[in-house]
Amino acid sequence: MTSLRQFASDPAAFRDALRIDADGSPVAFGKIVEPWQQADFAALDPAWLAVAGRSDIEPPHRRAWLERPRGHSKTMDLAIMAVWAVAFAPRPLAGVAAAADRDQARLLRDAIDRLARLNEWLASTLDVQAYRVSNSRTGSTLEILSSDAPTSYGLTPDFVVADELVHWQSRDLWDSLLSASAKRKHCVLVVITNAGFLDTWQHKTREAVRSDPRWFFSRLDGPTASWITADRLAEQRRLLPDIAYRRLWLNDWTAGSGDALATADIDAAVTLAGPMRSADPGYVYVAGLDLGLKRDASALCVLAVHHGETARVPTGRVVWGDWGPEPEYRVETRQATARIRLAATTLWKPPQRGKIDLAAVERAVAEAHERFGLQAVTYDPWQAEHLAQRLHRAGLPMRETPFSGVNLQRMATAMLEAFSDRRIELYRDDDLLRDLRRLRVVERHYGWRLASPRDGDGHGDLATAFALALLAADEARPKRCIAAWLDAGCLGTPTTTMEPPSVGDLFPSLAREGITPTHWPMLDRLMR
Question: What pLDDT is recorded for position 186?
Fold first, then answer.
């Protein structure tokens, strides 16, 4: 094995021997590293050697902007660079790693932790804590921050690595880190990110550094990694809106403030004259509640899911039944379409230097339940737990839905599918339409989520309530009409217009179709 002394003087030798987790199996990085990765590493090795005190040669670049598509080892490659600096600099270095949010920051921390666990010679040197990595022998440290950190002013770093800069909501942390990197002439600054949106501060920064000779600029024109298969790309192209696919996978900077929903799909959904005043037959109603207090708005969104109607209508004739003469009925059915209508919305914006009146929100939710007979009110318990408890005690069907990774991806999937399938019917609600047009698809370790930039108009709060309601709407979508067919008393009625299901169709899915013990006599007659 190559000696640690050689690792200290040669970052390339360190990378060749470093064991990484490749799809669950430990593999030497040198055996699987790809040419485009090697080119980026090689361009920055002189800067890392200089900042660590391992070389007196002035590097050609101390700044770098690396632009790669999704799935191209962005976080892992940053972790490898930072680990070498903390582990092998003979003098104490102060490093900063910054990510879009705490979830992304944890990914960087976890990548470093896996490297330490897979390489014993690193584990004996590095102490990996929640948001800090240190070398007890040399005193070098790496502080891991997120872009929503309260402040980073006062730092004097020797190196800064910035992960997924295009997803940073605010530029405050970037400005402070950029200015901090100028405090020391040897400071190394590395940005690694996906393409983002035109007309943003990130794009302006990118354009400025792209032509600056002091910066090393590298960009991959679309999927290059060997592990990104054609099947995987085809699946992503099917599931994502075209503009989001181009940004995330083709690494194209795209116009517009949002790329989650196609403008044509949103426009096609606006077909209703206005909100619903009360519950219409044939629909079930659900709601989503997004609660803000001071910084963000609160929003309530009510959706109507079409379930169809089944009714027994007398024909005026009398037939002979099992127990004597009985009226003849025919069944008239309006088939369920599972289309989703926007029934009503309410938006509360916080007053200047004040808070939203939660009592007004509570009254509005209760009134919506009284008008529509809500089947579920879906909410995030982060700030709504106390209000939800009060509404639950009042008899409302409150459904807690924490903003976990799984639920955020479910919300994104429900939103994208509902609009791409053209199952949504909206009336012109300017607040909601603005929020929908600004939604972005954001990559996270658990998959995808929707995000909205925070500005003077809010933080996409009505779109969030809409997405919460869509979760409940998907669960309320009508099942096959077996139970309804039985409830309508169709068995043995010659004039029924409904085709009965076969016994083979019934039994594998009785519970799923809502069959209850009250249906057993009818099923018995069906089997005879």
Answer: 92
Please give the average per-residue pLDDT across 138-156, as a whole number.
79
In a domain, 504, yes or no: no
Confidence of residue 502 (pLDDT cuts 50, 70, 90): very low
Count of domains forming the chain: 2
Count each helix (H run) and each strand (E run) in the chain, helices first: 20, 21
> What average pLDDT does the segment 29-41 reach?
96
Cα torsion angle, 409, 411, 416, 418, sign: positive
- Domain around 448: 263-307+332-476
Average pLDDT, the chain: 85
Looking at 187-339, which runs of residues are DSSP E strands? 188-193, 215-219, 270-272, 283-290, 298-306, 309-321, 324-334
For residues 380 and 426, state if they share a domain.
Answer: yes
| Pairwise CA distance, residues 207 & 104, whole Å | 25
pLDDT in tens, 386-413: 889 999 999 999 999 998 888 998 999 8
210 vs 48, 97, 487, CA distance in Å?
Answer: 21, 22, 69
Give yes or no for residue 142 having a pLDDT over 90: yes
Q: Is residue 489 part of a domain?
A: no
β-pairing verdict for 25-28 and 188-193:
unpaired
Does residue 101 sit in the same domain as residue 225? yes
Q: What is the CA radius of gyration of the chain?
A: 30
